[in-house]
Amino acid sequence: MTTMTKTEDTPAPTGPEAFLSVRDLRVRFSTEDGIVKAVDGLSFDVERGKTLGIVGESGSGKSVTNLTVLGLHNRKTTEIDGEIVLDGQELTGASERELEKLRGNKVAMIFQDPLTALSPYYTVGRQLSEPFMKHRGASKKEAKARAIEMLDKVGIPQPALRFNDYPHQFSGGMRQRAMIAMALMCDPDLLIADEPTTALDVTVQAQILDLLKDLQQEFGSAIIFITHDLGVIANMADDLLVMYAGRAVERGSVREVLRAPQHPYTWGLLSSMPRLGGDTGESLVPIPGSPPSLLNPPTGCPFHPRCAFTDQVTGASCSGERPSLGAGRAAACHLTGEQKQTIFIDQIKPRLG
């Protein structure tokens, strides 16, 4: 990975010592059309045994951030700056060999689509066994026993028989369970789940979420859970990071952010969701416009072209000044705390019920 010159620091979150600490992360991709600013000054922490939820629309930088943690970008076309520290080890300048020792071992990822993440040419059992043999020096027999144990733990029926099946012989829910089993083979300290339930029906989705929570309690893993679904986050996460256009716009505990959101973008996300028990004829309130191009993102607050409250800001320019995200519970917005509270109580909360 190459690095860029640091131009601006994002205030660090405060709290207990983190297992994963990301500071002022910036990721740029070189394309034929120009430089894509995929992540722009992002900071967050993940504690041991806790789940950090990251939400935002497609293109907000969620997946790019976590692929960067794993070092899975093309080094020739990607520029990375900032700090990524995993259990005291700096990853930003780590070699490919050092990162290979971590992937699937200390940190593992559950991808959104297991059918494309799993190789169609090898049995599920082989794909589970190989990382265990590589990282733990286990024999084939030991790795097979471990794989069968993990398939059983994630709820695959007749795991000894299904060990020899290929991915196409599994249902969607079973493939996702197999991906979770693969990620947990080496008892990782950090598990990254990239929208792991998006393609599943609600029944299977609930089973997968319950499974992840049970396994976290058993193994004590830290989890980063990436999604666009705030309903899922409410059920899964301890802390929440809301991302927009490669930046964090709001941060806090799940309870704080969902009960009293402070950023207009978070208000928009919540207002656009159907309410459980709401009127069937109730119309949703979509966020106007589209996410910005990261080739040429807006100046100032990246959300200002879609924000309905820019006319209430005084003493600052939403289009000219980039609002900062303070430490701890915070929202990057030029509205005053009193204005945020008034708008939320008078206009947003009645929509949420």
From TrEMBL:
Membrane topology: Peripheral membrane protein
InterPro entries reported for this sequence: AAA+_ATPase, ABC_Ni/Peptide_Import, ABC_transporter-like_ATP-bd, ABC_transporter-like_CS, Oligopep_ABC_C, P-loop_NTPase
GO molecular function, one term: ATP hydrolysis activity
Gene Ontology annotations for the cellular component aspect, listed alphabetically: plasma membrane
ABC transporter domain boundaries: 22-270
Superkingdom of the source species: Bacteria
Coiled-coil zones: none
Family matches, as PROSITE patterns: ABC_TRANSPORTER_1, ABC_TRANSPORTER_2
Compartment(s): Cell membrane
GO BP: peptide transport
Pfam families referenced in this protein's UniProt entry, alphabetically: ABC_tran (PF00005), oligo_HPY (PF08352)
Keyword terms of this UniProt record: ATP-binding, Cell membrane, Membrane, Nucleotide-binding, Transport
Family statement drawn from the similarity comment of this UniProt entry: Belongs to the ABC transporter superfamily.
PANTHER family in the cross-refs: DIPEPTIDE TRANSPORT ATP-BINDING PROTEIN DPPD, OLIGOPEPTIDE TRANSPORT ATP-BINDING PROTEIN APPD
Protein name: Peptide/nickel transport system ATP-binding protein
